[in-house]
Amino acid sequence: MAERRFRIGYALADKKQQSFIQNSLVSLAESRGIDLVRVDADRPLVDQGPFDCVLHKLYGDDWKAQLRDFERKYPNAVILDSPDAIERLHNRISMLQVVSELKIEHQNETFGIPKQIVIYDKETLLDRLAWESLKFPVIAKPLVADGSAKSHKMALVYNHEALNKLKPPIVLQEFVNHGGVIFKVYVVGNYVRCVKRKSLPDVEDKLDFSKDLLSFSQISNLAANERIDDKYYEMMHLGDTEMPPQSFLTDIARGLRHALKLNLFNFDVIRDSRFGNRYLIIDINYFPGYAKMPNYESVLTDFFCDTVYNKQKDRTVKGPDEKVCSEISVLDQCQMHSYGEDMRKIISNTCSDEDEGSLPVSPFHMEEKENSVQV
Ligand SMILES: Nc1ncnc2c1ncn2[C@@H]1O[C@H](COP(=O)(O)OP(=O)(O)OP(=O)(O)O)[C@@H](O)[C@H]1O
Ligand SMILES: O=P(O)(O)O[C@H]1[C@H](OP(=O)(O)O)[C@@H](OP(=O)(O)O)[C@@H](O)[C@@H](O)[C@@H]1OP(=O)(O)O
Ligand SMILES: [Mg+2]
Ligand SMILES: [Mg+2]
């Protein structure tokens, strides 16, 4: 049987393409039957198909219209992710609103978001009544989080007088001491991985009134070629900071993934130093810098395989007999690249004569990896 290969088109800004599309990822995906194909943003997407899946992080109405045209022509292709779902993350209020919708209970840990208000105009900014309930210092963040450099420009504001230096629309969020360490939780489908990063240091209880405002941008970011590993933890003295419980983060990730209807995102979490078991979600980003995550190549390749495999499964399931054939053939063509005979047995067993309805679980996520969990 001729080998069925899968095509995943990626439409990314240059910077993202450079960091994400590394040879190591391309060749691993290739060895598992997946070709990563660059989408030329200057030509209509619809003319560049077919793709089994489109991976994208581009903005604007024109791009959204292109995705709609593409979907009309190729209704079976998977778009990762839906532009409407991504848009919710472009506003720092709607982005975090979803956190309060989550119904998750853990015995020892609680979570939420910092106290915050949104200010749309200068008059309200200077009206003490409007933000009376907030305690200084606060972090001023642009309301819009659309990936532009401007949308990352923040300020730590120490007092009321400094507020007139800010340009609404902004979100004012209480600064919460958290021991200078932030947890970045990467989500790739049902895979969840938390890493530690250096964050803003704590501020003193007694505010230093000589300071009024401190501007900063992407304080917790790494350079494009850096990865989170033991060397980074050692250099940044992060080794001793205890991670939040993985099961707690996994539940939040699962809740966010379902509520947001997104597969590819990360969220930033800080541990409130006043309590020790209270966690605050401060930011959610679509398609973050995965290349800095340990083993990003295999995590992403597993996810790609899962995605195209599940889609193929949806498309081909008609009745038990047809199902058996179509699934074995997809697996033969794609997964056998890496799973070999054991997998063939699993599939054949699952598709035995007695088996009427159930489908084989996707074999791509059968191992639990260290420090990560499937949700
Ligand atoms: N409420 C807060 N209390 C304490 N520190 C905070 C708070 N909000 C943000 N920070 C610090 O400011 C940094 C930037 O904030 P935030 O993550 O909201 O910005 P961003 O530009 O969207 O970041 P990213 O690069 O992750 O997209 C955080 O990584 C953290 O160090
Ligand atoms: O630049 P990197 O690859 O690291 O990725 C960063 C990403 O930039 P890019 O998508 O333009 O590349 C940012 O996206 P926008 O908010 O600007 O859309 C945001 O998600 C950061 O949090 C990511 O860094 P991380 O926090 O994961 O380290
Ligand atoms: Mg952030
Ligand atoms: Mg962000």
UniProtKB/TrEMBL annotation:
Cofactor(s) needed: Mg(2+)
Note describing how the cofactor binds: Binds 2 magnesium ions per subunit.
GO terms (BP aspect): inositol trisphosphate metabolic process
One Gene Ontology cellular component annotation held by this UniProt entry: cytoplasm
Domain ATP-grasp: start-end pairs: 103-313
Region ranges (Disordered): 354-375
Compositionally biased region (Basic and acidic residues): 365-375
Catalytic activity: 1D-myo-inositol 3,4,5,6-tetrakisphosphate + ATP = 1D-myo-inositol 1,3,4,5,6-pentakisphosphate + ADP + H(+); 1D-myo-inositol 1,3,4-trisphosphate + ATP = 1D-myo-inositol 1,3,4,6-tetrakisphosphate + ADP + H(+); 1D-myo-inositol 1,3,4-trisphosphate + ATP = 1D-myo-inositol 1,3,4,5-tetrakisphosphate + ADP + H(+); 1D-myo-inositol 3,4,6-trisphosphate + ATP = 1D-myo-inositol 1,3,4,6-tetrakisphosphate + ADP + H(+)
Residues engaged in binding 1D-myo-inositol 1,3,4,6-tetrakisphosphate: K57
Keywords: ATP-binding, Kinase, Magnesium, Metal-binding, Nucleotide-binding, Transferase
Binding sites annotated in the UniProt record for 1D-myo-inositol 1,3,4-trisphosphate: K16, H152, K184, N285, G289
Binding site for Mg(2+) 2: D283, N285
List of residues binding ATP: 92, 141, 173-184, 199
EC number: 2.7.1.134
Annotated GO MF terms: ATP binding; inositol-1,3,4-trisphosphate 5-kinase activity; inositol-1,3,4-trisphosphate 6-kinase activity; inositol-3,4,5,6-tetrakisphosphate 1-kinase activity; inositol-3,4,6-trisphosphate 1-kinase activity; magnesium ion binding
Protein residues bound to Mg(2+) 1: D268, D283
Organism superkingdom: Eukaryota
Similarity annotation: Belongs to the ITPK1 family.
PANTHER family noted in UniProt: INOSITOL-TETRAKISPHOSPHATE 1-KINASE, INOSITOL-TETRAKISPHOSPHATE 1-KINASE 1
Subunit structure: Monomer.
Described purpose of this protein according to its UniProt entry: Kinase that can phosphorylate various inositol polyphosphate such as Ins(3,4,5,6)P4 or Ins(1,3,4)P3.
Name of the protein this chain belongs to: Inositol-tetrakisphosphate 1-kinase
Organism, scientific name: Acacia crassicarpa
Top-level taxonomy: Eukaryota, Viridiplantae, Streptophyta, Embryophyta, Tracheophyta
